[in-house]
Structure prediction request, 178 residues.
Amino acid sequence: MSKTTPTRAATKRGAKAIAAAPAAASVASASTALVIRAVRDEDLDAVIEMDALVTGIKKRDYWKSLYGRYADAVATGQHFLVATADNTVIGFVIGEVRDWEFGSPPCGWVFAIDVHPEARLLGAATQLLQAICQRFKRAGVSKVRTLLARENTLILSFFRSQGMMISPFIPLELDLGH
Ligand SMILES: CC(C)(COP(=O)(O)OP(=O)(O)OC[C@H]1O[C@@H](n2cnc3c(N)ncnc32)[C@H](O)[C@@H]1OP(=O)(O)O)[C@@H](O)C(=O)NCCC(=O)NCCS
Prediction:
């Protein structure tokens, strides 16, 4: 099981408060501790709501299946972490170590990261990414990769701010019809 990592929500920007996530109008002030920890059963509704808010689609079955595979799966290199402020989930990150896929040595992949719109620009995603990267490093890998939609300049800005660069891979796809 991943260790719980308490941090200060506002270390990055001093006095700015983490505003409310949906059901938590009172969440966090400058002094509120952000906790980064492995997802728990009771976090799932908040994760589903947050994803629906960002993507516009509620995918309960998808998230339940993902939870089944990634929660508490540290031994197999899979991580599903949440950021909480005052026990309210305000963000999450999901990723895993993949061995020799695409012909490359084992590396960490981040395939989802989200922060509640009202809790953004306070460093939560930075801390989530750092937390999952620490776990990747502990698993012995020295590289982290991700894929993002070309038009998603927000997520691109975030990953660039973390030092991520264009990788040597080219994504390809083919329409298989029906
Ligand atoms: C991208 C996202 C995760 C960033 O979360 P966050 O907690 O606000 O990020 P941080 O506060 O850690 O920001 C770190 C850096 O990212 C960059 N960044 C974040 N939001 C930005 C924005 N709106 N515009 C430009 N740069 C931005 C900045 O460089 C920022 O550092 P700075 O504030 O010192 O300039 C969040 O905006 C989000 O969830 N967006 C939707 C994500 C999404 O589309 N997910 C689906 C695909 S996985």
User: Anything to note?
Assistant: The helical segments are 44-55, 60-70, 124-138, 153-161. The chain has one domain: 5-161. The pocket of coenzyme A is lined by residues 54, 112-115, 120-126, 152, 154-155, 157-158, 161 (CB under 6 Å). The two ends are 42 Å apart (CA to CA).
